[in-house]
Fold this protein.
Amino acid sequence: MENLFSNTLDGYLFLASLLFAIGVLGILIRRNIIIIFMCVELMLSAVNLLLTAFSVHHNDPNGQVFVFFIMAVAAAEITIGLAILVMIYRNTGSVSIDSLKKLKW
Amino acid sequence: MNLLLLTILIPFVGGLVLLLLKGEAAKWISLAFSLLTLGAAVGMYQFFELNEQVQFVSNTVWMEALGLNFYFGADGISLVLVLLTTLLTPLIVLSAFGRNYSGVFLGLILLMESALVGVFTARDAFLFYVFWELALIPIYFICLYWGGENRGRITFKFFLYTLVGSLIMLMGVIYLYLQTEAQFGMASFAWEDISRLKLSTLEQSWLFWSFFAAFAIKMPVFPLHTWQPDTYTNAPAQGTMLLSGIMLKMGIYGVIRWMIPVLPEAMVEWAMLAVVLSVVGIVYASVIAIQQKEYKRLIAYSSIAHVGLIAAGIFTHSVHGIQGAMIQMLSHGVCAVGMFFVIDIIMQRTNTQQLESLGGIRNQAPVLTIFAVIVMLGSVSLPLTSGFVGEFILFVSVFEFNPYLAAVAGLTIILGAVYMLNSFQKSMLGEPRPEFASFKDLNWSEFAVLAVVSLLILYIGVYPKTFMELSEPSVKLMLGKYSGFTLN
Amino acid sequence: MEQIIFIILSVLAVVGALAVIFSSNAVYSVLFLVLTFFAIAGHFILLNAQFLAIVNIIVYAGAIMVLFLFVIMLLNLNKDSEAPTPALARIAGAIAAGLLMVTIVGAFKGLSQGSDVALRGGEIGTVSRLGQVLFSDFLLPFEISSVLFLSAMIGAVMLGKKNLKDS
Amino acid sequence: MLNLVFLIPLLPLIGFVLLGVFGSKLPKFVSGAIACTTVLVSFLITLTLLGGVLSGSIVSETITYFDWINTDGIYLPMSFLIDPLSVWMMTIITGVGFLIHLYSAGYMSHDEGFARYFTFLNLFVFSMLMLVMGSNFVVMFAGWEGVGFCSYMLIGFWFKNTNYNNAAKKAFIMNRVGDLGFLIGMLLIFVKVGSLEYATVFGQAPLVFESGTTDIVVITLCLFVGAMGKSAQIPLYTWLPDAMAGPTPVSALIHAATMVTAGIYMIVRSNVLYTLAPFTQDFIMIIGLCTALFAATIGLVQNDIKKVLAYSTVSQLGYMFFALGLGAYTTGLFHVTTHAFFKALLFLGSGSVIHAMSGEQDIRSMGGLRKKLPITFLTFLIGTIAIAGIPPFAGFFSKDEILAYAYQRSPILWALGILGALMTTFYMFRMFFLTFFGEFRGTEHQRSHLHESPLIMTLPLMILSILSIAGGFLGVPHVLGGHNWFGHYLSGVAPVKELALDHSTEILLMSISVALVLVVIIIAYVIYVSKKQVPVSEGSTLTTPHRVLYNKYYIDELYDALFSKTLRWKSEWFYKLLEKGGIDSLVNGIGKGVQWSGKTLRMAQTGNISTYLFLMVLGIILLLIITGLLV
């Protein structure tokens, strides 16, 4: 049990899962697109942390390289995402995801 | 160059050329192309040696990794159907002469011919499937753009119906393909490999129904026929001729080529059910035809009845049945083209196909009537016309299978006479109607089509040997009954 | 010692994360997220992944979060303009998130990857070591990611530009 | 001699093709000449064959021309069998056929469809020849159906009249009912014997079938169903009276002399099979006798000159089957021969009358024609006497032979046979007296047009009346000093049945029948000539039995209700309920079901992103749980 609260692999697993779940919770309960974006980032970070932990556990640098790429992609993604967000705000005057209900046939 | 490939390529090229052409010249060009194709097919007939061997073989690798080949070849069965296709296409093209059809229409007919010849000569199961679906495309457009009212809905139904069947067949084909890999260590679609597969009875039964779905819909066999009357009635005359004259033979050919040799045990096991369905279809369609008010729909139902007998014959799994089917396919093709053309001529001049508002045409158009009578005789299978030979042999086969079924199927002799004579009387005979006073007799192109059709009907009726000796060795091979050669 | 640091950093990260999703002002959310990222960077250092720790602070906490702030300022969203989420949806969300966590943890446990050996990163997390890997095995993806950035840049410009007709 | 055989059917066929293609452009004279010449030449060739048969140089020759159908055991060559039976039938067909062609050239001379008429008449002769010449059942069947088709075209010759067209259609369809029986019979023979060649079938039959087994009985019954249709026996007889819609020479040729006797020919041809099936023989005998009596009763009250003849034909055909049923095949064929002569004569005579009366067929409007139409009167009288069976006219010998065989079987059968004969005598003389004696009862217009027919029409009448007088001498029985030449002629094909009556009985039977016939003639004379009684006109009330007879026992109405209406009703029902309401709506239902489920499931797409996200998370959870469970 105490493994969960120490810097063992189990500890990182637990921490990362917790952060990830918080991110998911944020996505589910918030309506503000910006906050949702931030929650996505949070989830990515949780995954990054886990990848690094496994990388260290297996003594393999590839995991950390992967984290690096995730960060790069996340940066690009956020750029585009925020640009879209600006467009949405201009068109709807709101950043609530409930303003986007056209996503159906 | 291989004559068989020419027979496929000439109409294909012609079809593509015609898609771009407009005006009167298109008709002559399409006629020329179809006659060239006929020439190539007659050439095949000339060089064909009377045995069970597959001839004019052409095998080119298509996708090596998948074991796909452009593998064509004609045995007697294929040749008979190629001859039928190439004989009827010029007639169909010629029948469009007096009508206002664009080059696209004629081009689609030629593309259709190419695909049909492909279906009849493909020796590779996948290639067969490709041509099978390819043939659907031109006829879809022909029905969709040149059909009658409601054509959208009806063509859609027709398209979906046949597509469902062929997809089920595709599953069967893929299963066979995987089996070749499992059994021979090398995946192959070639007929020679597929037909020597050893399949358990249960496997065969599943495959039987998967193929049956596609072929029975195409023919059509009761109760999978309901797309057919609507489609025949709504399609333009040339489309109907293609559909009933040639296209439904794809289904029958499919049974002969891909079911009988591949699934011999299932063919025996399910023979009773299939024959009963066919026979029920004969009587059912015949009875329905009697009270039809539209001429084309009546003939559509009669077509179901005729095909029902052919289907009953092939599912008896006997040489007689298949040989009868071969000759009856020819006969039905020729008669259907004649019959639908006669109706088209009448519709063209009277603007109606309601039997009630027709009548007295014989007085105005004696020549048309003579041809209509000959075609009708072919349809009611009077001896010495084409219909009798096939029907007689088919009756023999069904009788050998089960006398009671044959007796029921025999009702078509009576019912066929009832509806054909009824419709003939209602349309042609009786007091001349004043509104048809300007009804013109045949022009030269119509005369040419019907004259050829009539001569073919009589020729096949008197001397069917020409065609029967072509297919007999191959038919025996399909049934594994050829003495000098065994499968595998 | 390491365990204590781990716990402190973990608490910081979790509290920051919770604050991100529960604060009503978006600007606060951003700031709390920065806090979380710093805590995660601390974890990276604890795992001796120095390079990632630096990148995390520079790229995430620095660049990206500033971008977020810019957008919030630009659109003048610092006031809470968000419609309140129904209580039912909140509860359902909480349950779903909790379930997710339980299943994820359960799944990892099921894989029995865990061990009680404390993780101490060796040399693999150093800049030189990662640089070697990145520029040998992952050279092509690295270069391709530059194309990704270029396209993201152009995309952002295109999207952010007001329609010429409107102006 | 035999190398010309193929010309016999080919010539009429050539005539058919020539007339069919060029007929409308040729002058009537040329069309008529082509038609008559081809049949005449065929007749002459047939006569040489007959000579060959009589001289004994031809016994039984099969001539094969080409393979018609040949596949895996089904071997049906296009081949002809030349033996006494087929030659005899060919002689009748071409001979009587030629006379009727000749007569038609005069009778139809004013009709616009002259060439068309001869086209089909030639085709008929061709088909009929195929029927009798074929050396296997299928060639016979080809001719069998061919004559049916020609009969269809000729009954509906005046195609503008819907009633005529209906009559034609009825004839064809009823024939087809019989044909189905014939076809099944053939198939059964093929399956049991493995061949349809006469030589093989009749050679094998006694070995394959035991006498009276189910197989042979079913085969013979099926074939007999075919004969019922073609030869108008109960229950398939109603088409023949309606078939009188065609031109009168057609009725003479097709519906009296030749086509309707095809059934008798077929049974005589397959006598080997029938002899093996005593049950079928009895069945045929009963059907034949019933038909003979039944049709005769209807004939008693008919007023249409052709209808009377039609019912008399049905009745006479019944006699022939009666004979066949008794096993007296040669006698049946003998009656076919004499009947061909006198019935053709009577029909042509009635044609001459109708011609003179400008198309009038009702005997109530005739009368007193003997002075205006002397030749017709005389020849008609000969025909009437011949059918009544007064010696030495043709009918006497053949009918008497049948009655003798009947007596040998049972006196009751004999009595019933006599009853039929008496009724025949009565209605024939009734018609004869009403037509030729008494006062003229037609319109003035008709009276002014009365004329004797031209020579081209009377010549065949005269020839046929000679044959009707002399034809009976072909088969003079032993008791009258002859030696039944006809029976011996056919003995190679069908055995002559023993007649074991002693001579005095035979003489007695003959005398009784002749005496009764004479009495009946006198009765008819008294009623229709002395008392000048004329059948009541249309619309007046009739006594119940009279009305039933006049309406032909309402059989037509019964069939209409039983078959035609049911079939139409079934057709409607199948189409509306089964086809549209059942199968098609099922098919469309599947399509509609897919559309409906699409429309319904589409609702799940709310477009609300938070819902999507929520569902996505749930999905992920589910997936993880499932993987967890699987691992």
User: Anything to note?
Assistant: Chain A touches chain C through 73 residues (CB under 8 Å).
